[in-house]
Predict the structure.
Amino acid sequence: MLKHLINTLRPRQWLKNLVIFAGIVFDGQLSVWQALLRVSIAFALFCLLSGLVYTINDLMDIKADRAHPKKQHRPIASGALSTKAAIGMAVVLALIIFPAAFFLDVKFGIVCSAYFLLMLAYSRWLKYIMIIDVMVIAIGFVLRMYAGITVITVQHFSPWLYILTSLLALFLAFGKRHAELKLLSENASEHRVTLRGYTLEMLNQYLVIVLSAILITYMLYTFAPTAGEHNYMMMFTIPFVIYGIFRYMEILQSKDTGAAPEEVLLSDRPLQATIVLWAVAVFIILYIII
């Protein structure tokens, strides 16, 4: 039963919460252990919050998940975990997460509450509205980033990163819709209502538009990676971003694994190598050169 409880929290999806560290990384505070500790605690709490949201979402989507070729194997949808046990876990998590979040920082607690309410609205209503469904996902990523900033004091964080994060989230969300449409074909609308309105041609156009915006935004960010200062060394990281985006597009167009971005990240070696090289380059530039 413990295994099914953990799987319901979807720990593989917690990779998305790493964006919480964006504030401390790009503000040059990784070496400040007090700040790193506070952000790490915030990350842990947000992972539990994400698990709570996923649990509630699975409880609300049992019927749709059972019609999905992959999601039908989730603990709640498959019947491996009873709804009573899932509800009990959700209550316990809520009683732990929100008091701890407000204790860590009031602003962080407010952001966690806003994220939770937004995701509840998404699960109940917003995910049925075409385009709004992916915009809510993008807002969720921005809230994650802001959550990491609320627990520390930043001085050099560039606002370009908010825009970049939202665009990247849109890119991943539209990519997921594209892969779902290919995977489920004529049964797509039974799993996700908004897929009735999307077409592969339309999603390809959305992806091209968002991809262009991502590259332009990142290039503009590299001209001023720290607020109020101008240093162009970050421009050397542009090739990694270009390759990473194009590599994901290649996977999306040729494989069904594009339906789950975290699966791509955990399985594709070229993409993993690109991310590591980009991270190393960013660290050298922000922490050694600048």
